[in-house]
Amino acid sequence: MADKRPIPVLMTGATGKLGRMMRHPACAEAWAGIDLMPVGRCDDMLRWAPGDDPAILPRAECVLALWGVTAGDSLADNTMLALEAARLARAVGARRVLHASSAAVYAPSADPHPENDPLVPATAYGAAKAAMERAILDLGDGTEHVRLRIGNVAGAESLFASLCRGGVVTLDRFGDGQGPVRSYIGPNDLARVLAALIRASTLDGVLNVAAPEPVAMQALVQAAGAPLRWRAAPDGAAQSLMVDTTRLSRLCRLETTASDPAAILAQVRAAGTLP
Questions:
Q1: 2 in a domain, yes or no?
Q2: Burial status of residue 137 (CB atoms within 10 A of its CB: 0-12, 13-18, 19 or more)
Q3: Nearest Cα to Cα of residue 164 among 19, 269, 21
Q4: Which of 18, 23, 75, 152 is deepest in the core (most CB within 10 A)?
């Protein structure tokens, strides 16, 4: 008889934007069969922080490491946090760690990046995530460390911060008359992907994570009904940054609506991060 017990998973970064969305009731269906145990400093989760003794935490099969630093002077802490997730996994007996990296490790490009493309980050954030990935590769601790190069998570990045503030949204316009294009994923779809990766018997060491098709930021602004203002793109601005999700689709095939701006916005509103 098959073991029907939920898969125990420790989730770090539970108080960040991404972690809060993954814990929202709107994403609960995606976690069916998984005992998602958030860890952090709040009373509604397992009380633990980097540097604490992990022996106080329960056993788990996977560590979902959603924590990270996105800006400022502490970007190098991304590597420290990845190493801390590895230490946590060893202590609780987890066979796998899913590390939240970023599509920002790739260079801007008009074509989607497959996982074997070189890492040529154009930003300090991307460089910090690339350094984090290199540190993981050097571990060799017997744990399965999976680097997730996640695209723009709708509701947790700068465009949606502008939409939440209300008023006019300003986008860069490039030489071809078009605006920025990115690989996006809605929060509910991201939860579905993460749950599928937790359940998978084996995984490659790196996976791009996004909806199948890229999304124009202009289309998201228009779907939200927000007023749009254009400005000339400054030197160095990236028009396109997209990832190839062929490998991901073999593990978790998302609906065709996953790339639809209106459907993405509906997911964000359901997750409580957009009025």
A1: no
A2: exposed
A3: 269
A4: 152
What span, in angstroms and rounded, lies between the C-alpha atoms of 136 and 145? 7
Nearest-angstrom CA–CA distance, 250 and 62: 21
Residue 77 CB neighbour total at 10 angstroms: 17
| Pick from 8, 13, 23: nearest CA to 191 | 23
Cα 259-212-189 angle, rounded to 5 deg: 65
How many residues are present in the chain? 275
Task: Name which of 121, 120, 96 is nearest 205 in CA terms.
Answer: 96
Closest CA to 230 of 174, 184, 182, 176: 174
Amino acid (one-letter) located at 81: L
The domain tally of the chain equals 1
Q: At 140, is the pLDDT very low, low, confident or very high (cuts 50, 70, 90)?
A: confident
Give the pairing of strands 181-182 and 215-216: antiparallel
**Interval 141-192: pLDDT, tens:** 899 999 999 999 999 999 999 999 999 999 999 999 999 999 999 999 999 9
pLDDT surpasses 50 at 1: no
- CATH code, domain carrying 46: 3.40.50.720
Residue where the block lists tokens 């260079």: 107
Q: How many other C-beta atoms can be found within 10 angstroms of the C-beta atom of residue 130?
A: 21
- Residue 54 near residue 86, CB atoms below 8 Å: no
pLDDT tens digits, one per residue of 205-227 = 999 999 999 999 999 999 999 99
